[in-house]
Amino acid sequence: EVTKQIEQEIVSADGAVGVGKFSSEPLEVKSAYLARLREIMDLPGIQKAGLRVVFDPLWGAARGYSDDLLREAGVQVATVHDYRDVLFGGHAPEPDDHLLGPMREKMRDMKAHIGIATDGDADRFGIVDEDGTFLQPNYVIALLFDYLVESRGWKNGVGKSVATTNLINALAKHHKVELHETPVGFKYIGELIKQDKIAIGGEESAGLSIRRHVPEKDGVLAGLLCCEMVARRGKSLGQQLRELFAEVGSFYPTRENFRLTPEVKAKFTEKLRLDLQNFCGRQISEVVRKDGLKLVLDDGSWVCYRLSGTEPVVRVYSEASSVSDLQALSAAAKQWIFE
User: Fold this and answer.
1) How confident is the model at residue 47 (pLDDT cuts 50, 70, 90)?
2) Does residue 334 fall inside a structural domain?
3) Quick one: how far is CA 181 from the chain centroid?
4) What is the mean pLDDT of the chain?
5) Would you call 66 helix, strand, or coil by DSSP?
6) Do 336 and 330 meet the contact criterion of CB atoms below 8 Å apart?
7) What is the mean pLDDT of residues 186-198?
8) Are strands 293-297 and 313-320 parallel, antiparallel or unpaired?
9) 306 and 179 share one domain
10) Which of 16, 61, 66, 250 is the most interior residue, by most CB within 10 Å?
11) Residue 133 is part of a domain; what is its CATH number?
């Protein structure tokens, strides 16, 4: 475990210098990090395409990173929430659809091609298309996987959590790339990156990274890669996603949380252990127990149940090939919890 390794190093350091004798020195990492991004990214390609970008760091740690790098390359970029606010505007600094209104307004003002956002500590991302549509992280990871195969020729593998869209599974099959499906938790993706087993790895909760980069979620990297992808392909994110659907099939995922009473939770926990053959009248083609219970149905749609370890909540992930099928599957998934 990465955490245990860090703890052991701290203990070793404490033992080496002795109690009360520990010293520290400041470390300036920004310049080294930005230098690495310049190596990874095609910044000249973004500038050459004339891309207009709006960046929202949500008052957080990414201030002066994505926007500075783009401006340095001659890209037209505007920034919102580019000042210190310890209350983060009075809400959680999460790059979610309902919190990106100011970024959308600025995008309309400057007719931007893309909006990129990061959360408070800059490890998660939020992406908005030129028409104001929020692109859910599932789709961002899939699009970037397809783009990295195309632009870098990286076909060493792809990683995703069990709760992340099976659009990535379909793309892995299409590109003849090995798929690594992990439990939820980016540490599993990070290990695959450290071993150079994957070109990109991500989770539906808006975390991703790529090979030859840090084995941890990087929201700055994600946003810049999306800028490069739009610039070099010359197509909006929505258009690219529609083309992807035409190539490998359509996938519509969602996630819902349901609070459980102690009685319902106890009963539901027992249900998760059942050896199921059918689910809501549908044949089950695959049962995955890497993290919770994932039921893949005979038409490729699926439901995944994960109990929270910190609160009486079950997280339900569902995916189907159409919006109407997703609505029906989501309703059935909820019913199965409480029946």
Assistant:
1) very high
2) yes
3) 14
4) 94
5) helix
6) no
7) 97
8) unpaired
9) no
10) 66
11) 3.40.120.10
**Pick from 194, 212, 247: which residue ends a domain?**
247
CB 35 within 8 A of CB 215: no
Domain of 37? 30-84+92-247
**Phi and psi at residue 180, to the nearest 5°:** -115, 110
Q: What is the pLDDT of residue 14?
A: 59
Neighbours of 306 (CB within 10 A): 21
Read off the DSSP letter of residue 97: G
Distances (CA, A) of 141 to 145, 209, 324: 6, 9, 24
Q: What CATH number does the domain containing 274 carry?
A: 3.30.310.50
* 226 lies in the same domain as 144: yes
For residue 16, the model assigns a pLDDT of 55
Domain boundary among 217, 247, 277: 247
- CA of residue 309 relative to chain centroid, distance: 21
CB 65 within 8 A of CB 34: yes
Confirm whether 71 is domain-assigned.
yes
Backbone angles phi, psi at 207, to 5 degrees: -125, 135
Asked whether residue 314 falls in the same domain as residue 235, the answer is: no
Tokens encoding 115:
């909006």
Whether 335 shows a pLDDT value over 80: the answer reads yes
Q: Model pTM?
A: 0.92
Do 125 and 221 sit in the same domain of this protein? yes
Cβ contact 112:52 at 8 Å:
yes
Cβ–Cβ under 8 Å, residues 153 and 175:
no
Backbone angles phi, psi at 315, to 5 degrees: -95, 130
Query: What tokens does 199 get?
Result: 């070109």
Count how many residues are written for the chain.
339
